[in-house]
Amino acid sequence: MPVPLYQAKADFFRTLGHPVRIRVLELLRDGPRPVRELLGEIEVEASNLSQQLAVLRRTGLVSAVREGGSVVYSLATPDIVDLLAAARRILTDMITGQGELLAELQAEAAE
Amino acid sequence: MPVPLYQAKADFFRTLGHPVRIRVLELLRDGPRPVRELLGEIEVEASNLSQQLAVLRRTGLVSAVREGGSVVYSLATPDIVDLLAAARRILTDMITGQGELLAELQAEAAE
DNA sequence: TGCTGAATTGAAGAATTCTTCATATTGCTC
DNA sequence: GAGCAATATGAAGAATTCTTCAATTCAGCA
């Protein structure tokens, strides 16, 4: 398999590796939104949000259209929802696993 | 929604944001493998591979057991396969989209 | 015990990514 | 056109992550 493919996949995941960008994608799951609205829900400076939106745009995960005085963002493909769901599943498993581990440790300590 | 949750998700994706780590996960999709074998398939130094395996271990994406003289790695949860599949789907869409765009641009240039 | 192969760890400099601030662009509205 | 609100961009220092090299651990075996 070609090396650049792994690089592309890694780059892709890396663009998801930022809390603001994740938050944006999750908000856009419910439909398109203007920047102003995103800004209202994410506690971050406007210029910082713009930077993160630019990253998402460059990667092609979102698209933006100007509507009057504002810019409306939306998910480039609904497949992103599946990806986020898969990630949530894994995280849930992992946290559950840790919970069990914790329970075991506590039981052990109580002996 | 709690902020640390987004941080956790971002951290999670960030651990996937490295070509060697992606490669390892894809190799482990087919079943457990000793480090020596991974090393045979990925063109990288042993110590570098170890570093990346350590990252995957810390995040809980893989688990390792010692078997005699070697250490065998495996996926912590099969859900990871779904995640990689979802990512592949999105990447395919994106590349297809670019292909179409390229085709359009070429048609335009030929006018 | 001492050696060897397999894998990991620690640490330092290089490279990349983040955050922030200042400045620029764009389209309203007067 | 001037002023204003919304968004984007550029650039610099701070913070994080990568790569590499040397040193270490650990099991198995002579």
Automatic annotation (TrEMBL), chains A, B:
Single GO MF descriptor: DNA-binding transcription factor activity
Keyword Disulfide bond: no
InterPro entries in the record: ArsR-like_HTH, HTH_ArsR_DNA-bd_dom, Metal_resp_trans_reg, WH-like_DNA-bd_sf, WH_DNA-bd_sf
Record PROSITE patterns: HTH_ARSR_2 (PS50987)
Domain of life: Bacteria
Domain spans labelled HTH arsR-type: 1-95
Pfam families linked to this entry: HTH_5
Name of this protein: Winged helix-turn-helix transcriptional regulator
Keyword tags: DNA-binding, Transcription, Transcription regulation
Source organism of this protein record: Microbispora hainanensis
